[in-house]
Amino acid sequence: MNKPGEEPTDRLDQPNDHLAVTPPKKWAAGVPAVVHALEYSLQQTSPLRTGVDLLTMNQVDGIDCPGCAWADPSPGHRHRNEYCENGAKHINDEATTRRVTADFFRTHSVSELSRQSDMWLNHQGRLTEPMVKRPESDHYEPISWSDAFGLLAAELNSLDSPDQAVFYTSGRASNEAAFVLQLFARAFGTNNLPDCSNMCHESSGFALHETLGTGKGTVSLHDLHHADLIFLVGQNPGTNHPRQLSALEQAKLNGARIIAVNTLPEAGLLRFKNPQKARGVIGRGVRIADRFLHIRAGGDLALFQALNLLLLQAEDARPGQVLDHDFIRTHTSGFEEFAAHARGLSWDDVLAATGLTRARIEQVRDDVLRSERVVVCWAMGVTQHKHGVATIREIVNFLMLRGNLGRAGTGACPVRGHSNVQGDRTMGIWEQMPDSFLDALQREFGFDPPRAHGLDSVNSIKAMREGRVAFFLALAGNFVRAAPDSAVTEAALRTCRLTAHISTKLNRSHTVCGRTALILPTLGRTEQDVQAGGEQFVTVENSMSEVHTSRGRLKPASPLLLSEVAILCRLARRTLDGKAGIPWERFEADYGTIRDRISRIVPGLHDFNRRVARPGGIQLPNPVNEGVFPTAVGKALFTRNTWQPPHLPDGHLLLQTLRSHDQWNTVPYTPNDRYRGIHGSRRVVLVNPDDLKELGLTGGQHVDLVGVWSDAAERRADDFEVVPYPTSRGCAAAYYPETQVLVPLDSVADISNQPTSKGVVVRLEPTGASPS
Ligand SMILES: Nc1nc2c(c(=O)[nH]1)N[C@H]1C(S)=C(S)[C@@H](COP(=O)(O)OP(=O)(O)OC[C@H]3O[C@@H](n4cnc5c(=O)[nH]c(N)nc54)[C@H](O)[C@@H]3O)O[C@H]1N2
Ligand SMILES: Nc1nc2c(c(=O)[nH]1)N[C@H]1C(S)=C(S)[C@@H](COP(=O)(O)OP(=O)(O)OC[C@H]3O[C@@H](n4cnc5c(=O)[nH]c(N)nc54)[C@H](O)[C@@H]3O)O[C@H]1N2
Ligand SMILES: [Mo]
């Protein structure tokens, strides 16, 4: 029996009421995209707010789109409308005119809210005043800001150790807010700074850092435009990075070939109609992928190993003509060991893991041999697998063999998710920041930051479960829905003495409470931010390491909102009570004073205030592009990677949990996924028709998804409708976060500890067939 307020999460959405399935689309963006964006926008907000937002979005001195982290073209090369359909949806979801007031919480108890779907909670609108849920109550009630900070400070100061506190950050938070949060956490005494990146590109960070000495991508928009071969591996740009399609279109016009590697034939990989150009509006658009490799889930490591073997063999046949010996000799270490290891590869294993033919992989080798400038882009289809780190290391091997690093038109391109997820890391939001950063903090502020590594997202949940964490504060995000294993995660959060969320909109994390819970409502990026020192702007860093300003224009959703920076500075002041000698009050009044401090701590951001004011902002240097590889040995490392195929018992499928076209991470906007032809329901599971035949199932049938994991605990997401879909054999797909309940907390990528959200072993049980 669940206690009130502890309803399980797997049945929050109305099951399959109105599912309609149409054939998947073969192209992305174009006119319908713009129409759909406006449709959603006008349901949320007024034509005036929509217009103000969209016209300033991604313009120099405007708002940075709160959607993905894709880079803007340089000033002077931007369209009048430099946004995409989905960016418009995200921004208007924030600019909504709907409001969640104290009355709302009087009407709806926490238990009642915990039975509502993610979509319903989001649709209630913007949070408007600070609220508290007291220990014996089932309702949130208003609390003054001052009392809220008092409560938080008292709780923090009563902990036995600072390490009983956890501070989570989601990647929409600005650089300034992130810097203040990590400074506060470290001055308080803990490195417990988990973030959404732990569940997103952590595998990329570890692999790139180890092999290249820097955790960031090496590619600029210019490189992408001038590459002659681009790989898109495990990403769905038509939905998740629509502005990347413009860059790919440009690359194609310059003569590039594109190879898409995916378990699904995503619309955005096939053809693009650019809504910003007449050609896109009326024509057939541009074909994106010249080659589509319909790979099995988790097969990318084997694919790149096979390509590397084929390149070594091509070099054997034509010595001195295939590999870039100069690059390998000058800049790398470990080539001989790598080559010996690569030569031991078994083709049987490769073909089984990838589901591809050898001839198909050889065609790709030929594409590579014809190319001089190669870029590899990747996202969650690579990072969220057990072998995510090894796969990216192998991609680095692949790039290095032909010197495709550090030259114009080449490089490694992890395509980041949240608009400032990369900046938050630059600002020190990481449980494992290196000593160089901590030393700089110590020099600047004169306190001794803790040195022991803190807790990441998965380990925070484990520590809560073991009673080692009592306090949880989140700067943005929806931790309870972003984290795996919903039942385990929710039970863990409920053991906390206090949970608090700095949020713009209501979500499930507000309904899964510690003994005491606080909602701290904040300004969104679209809104004007006026402090004692005048109107403020914030800064963000995109996927290509460009740091620029973002300035909101709209009137705040409520006069009671505080900015993220103000909330964190006041909390720090109240908790530390002058102990660390940090000028929190000045920071709050004038964010420029925060940037002055950042400029003395973060390499590459010297003279931050002056340089970021220039149109286009600051390009952070990437050592790789200067021929420097700051690894332990001062060279880029070739690595030897091994793998085991996932154990897939008979009658089971490997499930990936992914995004629809109409959602922002944990927040579905509508139940539709237009490009995949799914309308009216998110409780669907996409399965290859041949697998359905083998499993004795048919399209339209209702099934429970049953997770299979070594702990033998039953993880069940019930009542999903089967949709026959051209996913690769043995693989299924269903939406996150509804399937979060199936991802075991212990199922993580090797080394990065990132949940394996794209590799969940499940069986499909006809609904109602189970005895339970
Ligand atoms: N509209 C919108 N935009 C977003 C987001 C959003 O929710 N909505 N989220 C943002 C965030 S935080 C992120 S991290 C990014 C995520 O961007 P993506 O990584 O594109 O997001 P996913 O929906 O998780 O899609 C993963 C893709 O990988 C493929 N895939 C799955 N497994 C494999 C595999 O084993 N091999 C290969 N080759 N392919 C595989 C899937 O079929 C799918 O196309 O998007 C960002 N942008
Ligand atoms: N199964 C599965 N799990 C996954 C993934 C997956 O593909 N499959 N993807 C993972 C990935 S890539 C990511 S990045 C995480 C995402 O995890 P999170 O970043 O934690 O989740 P979001 O859904 O982006 O958070 C949405 C909430 O952020 C708040 N918010 C929005 N804008 C602002 C703002 O400007 N300021 C503040 N303070 N709050 C704001 C709103 O209250 C909103 O409800 O999920 C991960 N989890
Ligand atoms: Mo992400």
Automatic annotation (TrEMBL):
Name this protein carries in UniProt: FdhF/YdeP family oxidoreductase
Domain of life the protein comes from: Bacteria
Family note: Belongs to the prokaryotic molybdopterin-containing oxidoreductase family.
Region (Disordered): 1-22
PANTHER family in the record: PROTEIN YDEP (PTHR43105:SF4), RESPIRATORY NITRATE REDUCTASE (PTHR43105)
Source organism of this protein record: Streptomyces mexicanus
Domain Molybdopterin dinucleotide-binding: 653-757
Residue ranges annotated for the Molybdopterin oxidoreductase domain, each copy included: 126-528
Molecular functions per Gene Ontology: 4 iron, 4 sulfur cluster binding; formate dehydrogenase (NAD+) activity; molybdenum ion binding; molybdopterin cofactor binding
Residue ranges of the TM segments: none
Entry GO CC: membrane
Entry keyword annotation includes Iron-sulfur: yes
Keyword Secreted annotated: no
Biased composition (Basic and acidic residues): 1-16
Entry cofactors: Mo-bis(molybdopterin guanine dinucleotide); [4Fe-4S] cluster
Pfam family, one: Molydop_binding
Keywords: 4Fe-4S, Iron, Iron-sulfur, Metal-binding, Molybdenum, Oxidoreductase
